[in-house]
Specification:
Number of strands: 29
Number of helices: 14
Shape: elongated
Distance between the termini: 114 Å
């Protein structure tokens, strides 16, 4: 009897539960409760940020209107910017879902919508951003050369694209197609030897994402400052050419002699500043206009009031912040410049004779690239200011620029007591220049371009008028562009420079002449091009 009563009790409880369920609004006896889809989140940022042409899976979390994981079957569709819809099947359950094999071939923003199948209701949406893969190429593709180039792959927002398949297609330039996979930092390297001109294509996910032009082994760029009539207009021409995007800082020097400015090229590199010139007593309107055109904020005057007058400084102060770098003499001015430049990892300081402007100019672009200052000395005695600067800079290595005719053995001997000293000098300025080039030219990553400028940089180089500042001004441009400057006479190619060019022409891919035809003649320009063409 006891078991019979228990069974009857259980049956009555079950019947009551059925009746209660039937009383719930919208739920009929035997129905499954309706779920409402109301929320969507992407599992990771990679699910909402796709790359053009790549086939990807989009992983989602779905939520119902009670903030619980949604459970039910769903469909999805994606709408592009033109309103076109593409439908996708979705797999998953218990709030975790995946849309497979999504390929979007146009960059831009897409709208994703997910809807449940009946009897469930609601919808959820999100935004998918599709970005192009963007290659950054380091190196040049030179014809008939086994080139090694480096590529870094990122999206258009700069995010690194690691482990991506890339094809380098050289079939249009007489080479083959090569396949690579980017490393964890998005990079890879490749080699190619093109036999014809054209473009090498960089392909990812079926899309050409970039091209690399095949260029000549040597290019003669247009002459800079061919119409310049004096040092001021030449300084403006070089500043306009090299700093076309503007410059926050400008260096201003006198236009008639260059003793103060001969150490200023490393400062130019440090400040990313062109060197402009003016008359000592009056600010040249052409220089003022160029300073304004560059959008400069700071003007660094190199030299004391004897070099650039106080009146010039006062006029500039009406428009700009003016900083004067000046010592008691050219040696102290070079020291003051070195305080701004500092000393980089090489711990090397270059020292030139205070009157040997060509030697300082020949090395200045290289010194600037290294982050090394240039100091000055007399032939037979080192100024105290220079010695103090070497100590303050914590220098280890000293390179003397010029032979024993401009820096005597006793200077070298005195410096050798504290520093590792080298002396690079030849029998004339051009031979010294060649020796400097041989020691500093980087054949692994060659400096480019090579600029040719007049070597008439001292007052006694010209019979009348002012010496030519072309080489000094160009050295600042070369320091900015990673090139260097070769000085030569107006009509004759020095034998030492001719030898250097013939021996190293394989490392010189670009060159340009700077200055008017009185500095370097048209015939000499053509000869330079004939030597370097290949």
């Amino acid at each position: 009897m006891g078991k019979k009563r228990q069974t009857q009790t259980v049956l009555r409880v079950l019947m009551m539960m059925v009746l209660l369920i039937g009383m719930i609004p919208g739920v009929a006896l035997g129905d499954t409760p309706t779920l409402t889809l109301s929320g969507l989140t992407f599992m990771t940022s990679m699910d909402s940020n796709l790359i053009t042409g790549e086939t990807s899976n989009i992983n989602l979390r779905l939520w119902d209107d009670t903030s619980n994981p949604f459970s039910g079957s769903v469909n999805a569709y994606i709408i592009d910017a033109n309103g076109n819809q593409t439908f996708y099947s979705v797999s998953g359950a218990q709030g975790i879902y995946s849309i497979s094999n999504v390929t979007l071939d146009t960059p831009g923003n897409y709208s994703l919508y997910v809807t449940p199948t009946a009897p469930n209701t609601g919808a959820a949406g999100g935004t998918i951003i599709v970005a192009n893969a963007v290659p950054t190429v380091t190196g040049s593709m030179v014809i008939n050369t086994n080139n090694t180039l480096n590529v870094k792959l990122a999206d258009s927002a700069g995010n690194i694209l690691a482990r991506k398949a890339v094809t380098i297609d050289g079939s249009a330039v007489g080479a083959t197609a090569q396949s690579y996979t980017t490393l964890s930092d998005g990079t890879f390297s490749f080699q190619m030897d093109p036999s014809s001109y054209g473009n090498v294509s960089i392909i990812h996910a079926g899309h050409v994402i970039g091209t690399i032009p095949v260029v000549p082994a040597y290019t003669q760029n247009a002459r800079i400052g061919v119409t310049a009539v004096d040092n001021v207009s030449q300084s403006v021409a070089i500043a306009s050419s090299g700093w076309a995007q503007g410059a926050k800082n400008v260096i201003l020097t006198r236009d008639d002699q260059f003793s103060d400015a001969m150490a200023a090229v490393p400062l130019s590199k440090k400040l990313d500043a062109p060197i402009l010139m003016t008359d000592s007593s009056k600010l040249d309107d052409r220089s003022l206009t160029e300073i304004e055109n560059l959008g400069a904020e700071n003007v660094y005057i190199v030299g004391g009031t004897g070099a650039i007058s106080q009146a010039v400084e006062d006029q500039l102060k009406n428009y700009f912040t003016v900083i004067r770098i000046a010592g008691l003499d050219r040696y102290a001015t070079a020291v003051d410049i070195s305080n701004y430049v500092g000393l980089e990892a090489t711990h090397t300081v270059y020292i030139a004779n205070g009157y040997a402007i060509p030697d300082a100019v020949a090395a200045s672009a290289f010194a600037a690239e290294q982050g090394s200052p240039i100091l000055l000395t007399d032939k037979d005695q080192i100024p105290t200011s220079t010695l103090d600067a070497l100590a303050n800079l914590n220098a280890s290595n000293v390179v003397l620029l010029g032979g024993t005719g401009v820096i005597s053995p006793q200077v070298k001997d005195a410096l050798s007591l504290k520093y590792a000293v080298k002396q690079w000098g030849g029998h004339d300025r051009y031979d010294t220049q060649n020796i400097i080039f041989e020691n500093l030219l980087n054949t692994t990553t060659p400096q480019s371009p090579l600029y040719f400028a007049s070597g008439l940089v001292r007052q006694d180089d010209v019979s009348s008028g002012k010496p030519k500042a072309d080489a000094l001004l160009t050295a600042a441009l070369a320091a900015k562009t990673g090139g260097f400057v070769a000085m030569l006479s107006p009509n004759t190619l020095p034998a030492s420079l001719n030898y250097f060019l013939l021996y190293n022409k394989g490392y010189i891919s670009k060159a340009a002449v700077v200055g008017n035809y009185s500095g370097i003649s048209r015939d000499l320009e053509q000869r330079l091009q004939q030597i370097l063409n290949r």
